[in-house]
Design a protein that fits this description.
With 252 residues, the protein is of the alpha/beta class. It is built from 7 helices and 11 strands. It has a single domain, classed as Rossmann fold (3-Layer(aba) Sandwich), CATH 3.40.50. The chain has an 8-stranded parallel beta sheet, sandwiched between helices. Strands 4-8-7 form a 3-stranded antiparallel beta sheet, with helices on one face. Helix 1 crosses helix 2. The structure holds 6-O-phosphono-beta-D-fructofuranose. The site of 6-O-phosphono-beta-D-fructofuranose has 13 residues, from loops. Pfam families: Glucosamine_iso (PF01182).
């Protein structure tokens, strides 16, 4: 369940190889995508390898985990903007099959229901990429979110706002709400790859390792998934007990 690689670049290489293997086997796969700094080297490497190996991404469908409420697609801190910057503007994804929640949507409830339904209609997520918040959130599912949750509106915790405040000019600009895929939606993915890198993730990875599968620790739902990997670099593994992680070999 817990696997280690030495550094973020090695994780980016591994995850890219896994994604390309999946796409080659199933060109119309459905990918669940995450944002955040953890994903940046992964998307960078993915773009490089897709171009180098001439991989066809035009038949893929993608669903992003979350979006801030109140930020439009052209706001530089919106996840729409992030995805265009790191992935969608760089590769030939079919625009009409790349889905993100709309942070400016008037009818949030209707949108939430539609988003979970669209995933089911697309056949479900084949591979879900996840980062993790320093409080154990996945997507924006904060501690205490029911495991049975579907796409919903969340009030961001103070911890999450402080963590993500580094991307904004001032704390006043950090949104207070977001739309996120629910934990049930995430759990229904056929495969999950959760990645944590850097010393600022060491404590939460130790907490996750020791935690039971419990709603107080949203990421713990991943531990109950039959096809999940939790991949950490050396820095994020620093507080894990010896032998907790299986060292990963690079995929061929
Ligand atoms: O990778 P980061 O920037 O540490 O963010 C951790 C997680 O929290 C979020 O910011 C909220 O979903 C995700 O984008 C990310 O997976």
């Amino acid at each position: 369940m817990f696997f280690s690689l030495p550094h973020p670049q090695a994780i980016a290489d591994y995850v890219t190889t896994r994604l390309i293997q999946l796409i080659q086997k199933k060109p119309n796969a459905v990918l669940g995508l995450a944002t955040g700094s953890t994903m940046e080297p992964i998307y960078e490497q993915f773009c490089r390898q897709v171009a180098k190996q001439d991989v066809n991404v035009s038949e893929l469908t993608t669903f992003n985990l979350d979006e801030y409420i109140g930020l439009g697609a052209d706001h530089p801190q919106s996840y729409h903007y992030y995805m265009r910057q790191y992935l969608f503007n760089r590769l030939a994804f079919a625009q009409h099959r790349t889905f993100l929640p709309d942070g400016l949507c008037g009818d949030l409830q209707e949108q939430c229901e539609r988003y979970s339904r669209l995933i089911l209609e697309a056949g479900g997520i084949d591979l879900q990429l996840l980062g993790i918040g320093s409080n154990g959130h996945i997507g924006f599912n904060e501690p205490g979110t029911p495991f049975a949750s579907r796409t919903h509106v969340v009030a961001l915790s103070e911890q999450t706002r402080i963590d993500n405040g580094r991307f904004f000019d001032s704390m006043d600009e950090v949104p207070t709400q977001a739309i996120t895929l629910g934990l049930q939606d995430i759990f229904e993915a056929k495969e999950i790859v959760l990645v944590a890198t850097g010393t600022n993730k060491a404590q939460i990875m130790a907490d996750l390792y020791h935690s039971p599968v419990d709603e107080a620790m949203p990421a713990s739902i991943v531990k109950a998934h039959p096809h999940a990997m939790i991949i950490v670099d050396e820095a994020a593994a620093a507080l894990l007990p010896a032998g907790a992680c299986k060292p990963l070999l690079q995929l061929a």
